[in-house]
Batch of 4 targets.
Target 1
Amino acid sequence: MSAKKITVVGAGHVGATCSQLLAMKELAREVVLVDIAEGIPQGKGLDQWESAPIEGFDTRVYGADDYSLSEGSELFIVTAGIARKPGMSRDDLLRTNAGIVHSVSEEIKRVAPEAIVIMVSNPLDIMAQVAMEATGFPRERVIGMAGVLDTARYRSFIALELDVSIEDIQALVLGGHGDTMVPLASYTSVSGIPLAQLLSQTRIDALVERTRKGGGEIVAHLKTGSAYYAPAAAAVQMAEAIVKNKRRILPCAAWLQGEYGMEDLFLGVPCLLGEGGLRRIVEVELSDAERAALESSAAAVRSTIEALKALT
Ligand code: APR
């Protein structure tokens, strides 16, 4: 199973990595890479297509500076924007990226009114809302990439700490994408063994803290940009669940309508992804402390929305 056409908007670090991964996994017959930077999408698209004979994929990769080739795309992965620089919070990106995502969303609506949108641009939860409002798409078709990345970071740190395979580590991270994310230690296990039986609370707390600051840790190393391999892998895993109708339960940013006692905001929650996009939000039991952490994460998202409204 694969899509006929997937478009990746933004041919920068995250976007170009997405299109290469989509092609290598043959998740669509055609992948279109769109960017406003002159020559970049065409050059990267052609370069990726030239890797096809070596990698053995039949996905055609195209690059374009407009949306004519994207007409009828079933799925869009939106990575357009400016990346976070050292010392810059995600919210600093707010105004610029909101304008970019708004204009991109209008193009998506024009060329592919039935498409599903996976939002990647930051600040994520807010950009997902901008896209949903600008496209007018239902919540099933606008989903934010946050939790898959945050969970992957958490799992990768647990694997290092315990020196075990990442394949055996299951974890759940809820909340907004950022410093207020809520890693759920109670839903973390290694081959079914609760994490608390394998690590002390102090070590778990340290891993949770590292996960919260995972994006910043990469920025501190790179200095001139932010993470892209893991973010792209995360977005492509969501795309795969949708185009193959896998019905995976993945933590994603979804528009809440009463779930977890909240409504009218995007927040990271377990989502069942398959044909049509978001099929269901799964509600899990939370301890009082976890619920309080989720509430404060939601408050941070709401305050960024207010900040954006004040800016525009
Ligand atoms: N339409 C299409 N592409 C655009 C537009 C636009 N209106 N505006 C900017 N872009 C492109 C830029 O030209 C650039 O090539 O988006 C690309 C962004 O690429 P990078 O600067 O390399 O940023 P990247 O690291 O890929 O991050 C992109 O993902 O994880 C998030 O925080 C990150 O919001 C950022 C986004």
Target 2
Amino acid sequence: MKTPIIAPSLLSANFGLLNGEVEMLELSQAEWLHLDVMDGRFVPNISFGFPVVEAVRRQSQKFLDVHLMIEQPELYVDRFAKAGSDLISVHWEACRHLHRTLQMIRDAGKKSGVAINPHTPVKGLRSILSSTDLILIMSVNPGFGGQRFIPESLERISETRKMIDDAGYSNIHIEVDGGIGLENAGAVIQAGATVLVAGSSVFGSANPQETISKLRAAK
Ligand code: DX5
Ligand code: ZN
């Protein structure tokens, strides 16, 4: 089993001390930082936008994984690219022309990702595999940190793993987002995930850096 990439979600960070939080993550074993952008329309919550992505970019050498939970993401792809994202994920459910939007992300010189809600059938992604670098499987309903992992997500991860392996796209990352902690990280990796997002389990722990290392070592 390959060591997973850990992507701490800044949604659970202390925004009053954002510099310090990013500094702490720079010194951790996390390879990616996960940034959750919410518009109050696609999801019933509003988080942050360009200035925060830019601020994190100025301070971090890590790979910035930007998860757009917004309607019509195609209108903002270029600005999130310029803000310093390394990878931009858009939601399947928010894109009328998903293939075109993924192309826009790649044309902007960034890696592309597709996120899917817990009810969206995994097999719909089969037709866009050549245009994506990552599939982001939501294991909670998007919008908030600190929710419980939906158990059926494990089957969805295995199904995605099988689909991409069978189609010859094994290098596509499978990222899982929502409710991940030390108690279930092993099962999520076993099912086929390569990137684990973790918000509350990292920032809510006494020693976030140690929690990141433990998540990375989970089996
Ligand atoms: C939820 C976000 C997640 C969130 C995860 O909509 O996409 O990235 O921050 O938080 P936890 O790990 O607390 O479930
Ligand atoms: Zn997310």
Target 3
Amino acid sequence: MSDCLFCKIIAGEIKGTIVHQDNDVVAIEDINPQAPLHVLIIPRQHIATINDLTPANDALVGSMFRAAAALARQHGYADRGYRTVFNCNSEAGQSVFHIHLHLLAGRPMLWPPG
Ligand code: 5GP
Ligand code: ZN
């Protein structure tokens, strides 16, 4: 999608620090990290919100979680623990309307989340 920040990062039109990429997803460091490890796992396909997912995207969502788990393991957080978050729409704080899975690790996480 032409005016989407994450589509532009995936296309290389805007700089992003890529930490993983495969056929389905690109993972980048969050520009405003909320934990020592804060990575965004972004599908190459533009999907605005998780409300827009269809059964055809089931494997893609699985790939996003598997990429998050692999990155967490790579950074030594598999056993210690980490959090994965999808924000959907305004009350949840979604600010970029191209779905992305937040991977946060490296500090204790509070519950309930803010
Ligand atoms: P959301 O609020 O939509 O769940 O998450 C969007 C995330 O994208 C935020 O954590 C924000 O810090 C991050 N972000 C916003 N603009 C950029 C950018 O230009 N580059 C990178 N790497 N992250 C960004
Ligand atoms: Zn997009």
Target 4
Amino acid sequence: MEPSPIIAPSILAADFARLAEEVRAVEGAADWVHVDVMDNHFVPNLTIGLPVVQSLRKATDIPFDVHLMITEPERWAPGFAEAGAYNVTFHAEACEDPFALAKTLRAAGAKAGLAIDRDTPVEPYLELLPFVDTLLIMTIKAGFGGQKFMPEMLDKVRDVRRRITAKGLEVRLEVDGGISADTIEQAAEAGADAFVAGTAVYGADDPAEAVRKLRAQVLHSGVRA
Ligand code: DX5
Ligand code: ZN
């Protein structure tokens, strides 16, 4: 059984010249490290790709939570699974056949995640829940770190949590964007059980301590912990 809640620092807010060190700085405190892959097509930003994940995989044992903000995820997602990513999440908006891609990812040995961007309703995707391991709800518009959390996205989290509970499914419900000490409790109360935090972790003087504090807040919020 995976621990609950999951805290996943996003290395998008880390120092890219010292990535291995930055990942090791949260080892023992964080559950997953979140890796934001952007292609300047799906989102207007360009970050890191497969070779970086392959190299980083050798530098640490912490599970990687790869968030693909790319068009044609079918082309790249299996490579991240083969590189040893624990969870590979692709965007609903970018994928023609999410059911098939989730199946491919699982066959490649990874958990399969589906992400829903700010302007995308979640209802059309609820029927996919039994076929994915992670449902990621963006609490900002995907593309950049350091944006302001949007509480209005929590209605989607509540909807998905209701569905997961009603169907007795084992799906991680992850939130991403603007998660910090000021916002994590609202997200937990809405039903999230995995939390991505970039700026709130890597912008802190002590990233591991920031992770521990975020976890304590979720636990103290008294929901699904
Ligand atoms: C943005 C990324 C996020 C980002 C979060 O599109 O998906 O993972 O790193 O950064 P913060 O926590 O700073 O909002
Ligand atoms: Zn992300």
